[in-house]
Write a structure and sequence with these properties.
Length: about 500
């Protein structure tokens, strides 16, 4: 038999049902607009406490921290005193006409305003999930809303405990689990600790329904955040991949050019030596007044230039396998200057040496470092076509030795700084663009570095740093690379 309902009671029940659906609709609509988790949590709590909403005095959201395996207070809302409550509720009524308007204002706000006192209270809630006997953990696992009343959780029938009663400052509050399917998210807790109004079964049932809407919103914001992070990581990887592809293409181009240049250098070297030999022999037999003498000097200078270019190309290809031997770097610098004596005189460049005495013993490939120094000095001379001062200095620390080569030339334009050590880059009409690339390779081969300072009109300084014992660094790098490879193949 169908139960007979009094007309007034039926109308009131229908009105309550419409009100409940309106609350859920307004909150759901507001939650669908935001993907920010903290703002979504705040909207949920406002829906629980607003007079147009569920009408509780205070509300707390506790969420699972899977990393620490705990249930933690995340956000709370509510007044500390009856006077504060009256002031807040009155201001909200004057400012907004409905729950929808209130929630829209939260969504549009740049940031949310947290109540300090109640959030400090929420932050103290920290329950280990492995404590299966804790009341909040038991409610979380049950997926069933309940009400704390006179020291017991109903309808579960287990005690609330003094800890929670002291924490919330009341022995009557409602708890609704937040979950989706079999995935636990946290708890939604609400009370009437200010007005001391009882929590009836209708309010508890509505809170339970509301908690399901809140669970979906929380999970959606988390999924969005995770997706956004994956997109960000993917974009970063794409950028890195594109950069790596460009580097590989550049390396392949450089390798191809290097092979071609090496092949041409070897093919040209022998006939060029023959041409140079005959030209020098003819020049020695020509009288000084011979009008062809000037033309022969041009031929000889061009042969010399071609021989230097071929030497640079072949030197660049030989850098990768250094043979380390003990060496005196100061003596090597003096030897380089003697070798380049004629070039220094022609350039009208004054040389200044600031060589640190008692440099520590160092192991280097002397031929490679000599080539690097000759390239640096040659570049410095080209930077001072009208003369100037060339300064060479040495210094050392515990692990490395540094050679400084400074000129007083025009300086290096800033737009060329990033390309300076790239193979085949040159701003000169003559040269291969391998000079500084060779120096950079020598630095790498000696577990060191190459850096520079330059200012327009104030000259440039290049600093070639060499490891005192480069073989130890190479062995350590190989060992680390082998360990990493072994780890990746486990």
């Amino acid at each position: 038999m169908r139960e007979l309902i009094h007309p007034d009671r039926g109308a009131q029940s229908l009105e309550n049902r419409v009100l409940e659906l309106t609350i859920l609709h307004d909150v759901s609509r507001a939650l669908q607009k935001t993907v920010d988790e903290m703002k979504a949590l705040y909207i949920i709590l406002v829906g629980v406490t607003a007079g147009w909403g569920l009408g509780f005095n205070r509300a707390f959201i506790l969420l699972l921290d899977e990393g620490e395996n705990t249930l933690q207070g995340r956000l709370a809302i509510g007044p500390e005193t009856p006077e504060e409550a009256l002031s807040i509720w009155q201001a909200m009524k004057e400012k907004h006409e409905s729950l929808g308007e209130l929630l829209d204002s939260i969504y549009q706000a740049a940031d949310i305003k947290k109540d300090k006192w109640i959030n400090e209270l929420a932050a103290r809630i920290r329950v280990p999930l492995n404590n299966q006997d804790h009341p909040l953990v038991r409610i979380l696992r049950s997926h069933e809303a309940c009400r704390a009343f006179h020291g017991m959780f109903m309808p579960h029938g287990f005690p609330v405990g003094d800890e929670l009663t002291r924490l919330f400052g009341t022995d009557e509050f409602a708890v609704a689990p937040l979950f989706l399917a079999d995935k636990d998210l946290g708890l939604l807790i609400a009370d009437n600790a200010i007005a001391h109004a009882p929590i009836d079964d209708s309010s508890l049932g509505l809170l339970e329904i509301y908690a399901q809407e809140a669970s979906a919103a929380i999970q959606n914001t988390r999924l969005y955040r995770r997706l956004s992070e994956e997109i960000r990581v993917s974009e970063e990887r794409n950028v890195t991949l594109r950069a790596s592809q460009e580097q590989l293409l550049q390396a392949e181009r450089i390798t191809t050019m290097g092979r071609l240049a090496t092949l041409l250098a070897y093919r040209i070297r022998a006939p060029l030596a023959t041409i140079g030999g005959f030209a020098r022999r003819l020049a020695r037999t020509m009288p000084a007044e011979d009008p062809r003498r000037e033309e022969m000097e041009v031929i000889l200078s061009q042969v010399d230039r071609l021989e230097r270019l071929i030497g640079e190309v072949l030197a660049y290809r030989r850098i990768s396998r250094p043979e380390f031997q003990p060496a005196d770097v100061n003596a090597l610098i003096r030897s380089v200057l003697i070798t380049m004596h004629d070039d220094l005189q022609r350039s009208a460049v004054r040389t200044v040496l600031r060589l640190k005495p008692d440099l520590p013993p160092i192991r280097i490939d002397e031929l490679q470092v000599r080539q690097a120094l000759m390239n640096l000095v040659g570049n410095a001379l080209e930077a001072m076509p009208a003369g100037g001062t060339l300064t060479l200095a040495t210094s050392s620390d515990t692990d490395s030795l540094e050679i400084e080569v400074t000129d007083t030339g025009a300086g290096i334009p800033k737009e060329n700084w990033n390309k300076l050590f790239k193979p085949f880059f040159t701003t000169k009409t003559t040269g291969t663009g391998l000079g500084l690339a060779i120096v950079s390779q020598v630095a790498d081969a000696h577990r060191g570095s190459l850096r520079f300072k330059s200012a327009p009109g104030a000259g440039s300084s290049f600093y070639l740093r060499l490891a005192i014992n480069p073989e130890e660094g190479i062995a350590a790098t190989r060992s680390a690379a082998a360990a990493e490879s072994k780890e990746q193949h486990r």
